What we know:
Elements: H1 2-21, H2 28-32, E1 34-38, E2 43-46, E3 56-60, E4 65-77, E5 80-87, E6 94-98, E7 102-104, H3 121-133, E8 136-144, E9 163-164, H4 172-177, H5 215-223, E10 225-231, H6 243-259, E11 263-267, H7 278-290, E12 294-295, H8 297-302, E13 324-325, H9 335-354
Parallel strand pairs: 8-10, 9-13, 10-11, 11-12
Antiparallel strand pairs: 1-4, 1-7, 2-3, 4-5, 5-6
Helix pairs in contact: 1-6, 6-7
Amino acid sequence: MMKRLILPLAVLLILLPFLAAAPHASRAQEDAFTYRCTVGPETWMRECPHWAGCAPIYWYSHNTILFVKDTVTGDRNAGTNEWLLIEDPVQHNEGYVHSSMTTECTPEAWQLLPVVPEVTNTARDIYQRGQELGTDPTRFSKVGDCQNVSAYFLSSFDTPLQYDLGDYEHLQSTIDQFAGSFSRDSAAVEGGFTVASVLSPLWADPARCDDGETPLECEARLHNPSIVIISMETWSRETAQPSSLYQEYLMEVVAFWIDRGVVPILATKADNIEGDHSINQAIVEVAATYDIPLWNFWLAAHTLPKHGLSNPELDQFHLLWGRSFYNNPDRLRDGWPVRNLTALQSLDAVWRTVTADE
C-alpha cells in the first residue's frame, strides 16, 4: 500500500506551487440556476409555456435534474399555472416544463460541474513540462475499459465519411490536430479492464508491450501522447471492493501521466451500478486533488432519455448506440453520439487552453 502511494504523493509535491496559484474551478452553474427533478417517466420540454401550439423539443426521464433559469405563467395544470424556463446543460437549448411535472431536489455538488472541463493553469504547466520532455503535441491517448474501445469511442473522427459535426464545425481543427489518435487501439484500453488492471504487467498485451511493462508504460512508450483521456468505469462488481481503493489506484494512474508531462482528462461515468455514486465522487475528488480537467460525462448522459443507456431495465451500463452525425438533432439524444461529442469538446477545451500562448 505504501509503495503505491509514493508516486501520487511525489507528484502532488511537484504540483504544490501550481495548485496554490491555480484559480478554483468555476461553479457558475450553481449560481445561475435553481434545480428541480422530473417525476414522470417522460417529461417534455416545450417551446413555450402552453399545451396547445407549443411544439415539444425533447423529453427527460424520471428523476432528471432540470436546470431552472426562471419561472413564468402559462397554461394551468394540477392547480397551478407555473412553468419552468430550463436550459439543457449539453446543447444549451432553452424550453419550458410545467412545474407539476417536477419536484424539489438537491443535487450533489459534483453533479452540477460542467460537462466540458474548465482548464486551469495547472494543466498548462503539466503540458509545457511535457513539451520540454518531448511529448508529441499531435497525439492523445485513451485509458479505459469497454466504453473506450476504438470500435465505439471517438474512432469515427478519423474517417470523414463517418461523422458530420453539424453546428459543431469549430471542432474540426481539433480533429485535424490529433488525426490518427481517434481510431488508434490504445495499449491501455481493453474490455474488462479496471483501474487496477492498467497498473499491472499481467494485463499488458504481449504482442505490443515489452516484458515487465504495465499497460500504462506500454502506451506511453508506443504513442508518447501530450494529453490522455482516462475513463475507468468497471470496478469489482463481483467482490464489491470499496471506492476508496478505486480512488487510490486512480491517483496512481493520474500521477503516472503527470510525472511524464501528459495532461490527464478524467471522465465521470453514466451509470450508478454501485448504487451510491461513490465511483463518480472518487473521480471528482482525484480531479480536484490534482487540479486537472474533469469531463463530467455523467451530467451529459443524465439529461438524455433513459440517461443515455440502451436498456437500463436490464443492464444499467451500456450506452445507446448512434453514429456521430450531429447534423441530425436526434443523435444528440443518444448515449454514444453524446459521449463522443462531449469527449471531443473536452479534448478541444484542454488543447486550446494549454496551447493558448503558443
